[in-house]
Design goal:
- With 148 residues, the protein is mostly helical.
- The chain has one domain (2-147).
- Helix content is 93%, strand content 0%.
- α1 packs antiparallel against α2 and α2 (88-114) runs antiparallel to α3.
- It is rod-shaped.
Length: 148
């Protein structure tokens, strides 16, 4: 009888432990699911913030670039006005260069105005190319103003 009672007691303990483990497992799964949902919410918020930051960076960059392009327009206009007072041969020499500078400046304006935000890699490539072209244009304008 002791043997049967002992076996029954051990079997009861095993069943209780099994049920407890099953309940804990369900609780653990629920907690893991809850944690995963929280992590997903945090990740979604981080993504939204990254999109906002990217948009703000693009807007700021666009405004700065447009200001530089406007300054280029003013410099070109000043150079044109200065060139009008020069001799005819100098005027002709620089007139074609001024037209080219205006075209390049206008092309850059169109480029920055028409650019639509896209993934980060494309944006970085565009920004690098645009900066290079803008710097090149600025240097070309400076070279002409030095030569006058």
């Amino acid at each position: 009888m002791k043997s049967t009672t002992l076996k029954s007691a051990i079997l009861s303990v095993i069943i209780v432990m099994g049920m407890t483990n099953c309940n804990n497992s369900a609780k653990q799964k629920a907690e893991k699911l809850e944690n995963a949902q929280e992590n997903l919410n945090v990740a979604e918020q981080a993504l939204q913030q990254a999109v906002i930051d990217s948009t703000n960076e693009f807007t700021r960059y666009k405004m700065e670039s447009e200001a530089k392009l406007k300054a280029n327009d003013q410099k070109i206009a000043e150079l044109k006005a200065t060139m009008q007072a020069e001799k005819a041969d100098i005027k002709v020499k620089y007139e074609n260069q001024m037209i080219e500078l205006e075209k390049k400046n206008q092309a850059l304006k169109v480029s920055i105005t028409d650019y639509k935000e896209s993934d980060v890699n494309k944006w970085e490539k565009f920004k690098e190319s645009f900066n290079r072209d803008l710097d090149s244009l600025g240097k070309a304008i400076s070279r002409i103003s030095i030569k006058k």
